Structure prediction request, 170 residues.
Amino acid sequence: MRTIIVTGSVGAGKTALSKKLALAARYIYVDVNKIIKKYNLAEGYDRKRKSKIIDADKLSKALISVIKSLEEDESAKGVIIDSHLSHHLPAKYAGLCIIVKCSINLLNKRLKNRGYSKSKIRENLDAEIFNVCLEEAKEKGHRIMVVDTSKGINKNAVSSVVKWVRKRKK
Prediction:
């Protein structure tokens, strides 16, 4: 079974891309927020950021457990794991790490539309500018593919990943 992780800055387009990929490749889609809730992984709440505090190591262990349980499902071809934290999963559990990128102007607009505070927007824009997810994924040793969603999620982005999946089956 193949595991593809999709990561990137908040608002960059991970979920839209992940769902399209899962549909096109006939993979199981895993929303990490549901895993966090199911395994009670939130260790608190950051009021300033208005977000849950998650221990990346505990999340990785939970994701490994999910991957292993899905491997027992013979109908499962593969899994797409969607989260800005998914790149913390050890590289040996993921065949591909897709880094979703987005133009700063579009990302700023998306985050404003979500009603995020100025400080939360600034933090996420900085994460995009400094390629935080990409650099952390490199440090973990992931095989990386970068997909830019600035002009939407086109068929080329989805088909290039599906081609990668098919090549690995041989």
About this structure: The longest strand covers residues 2-8. The domain at 2-155 is CATH 3.40.50.300 (Rossmann fold).
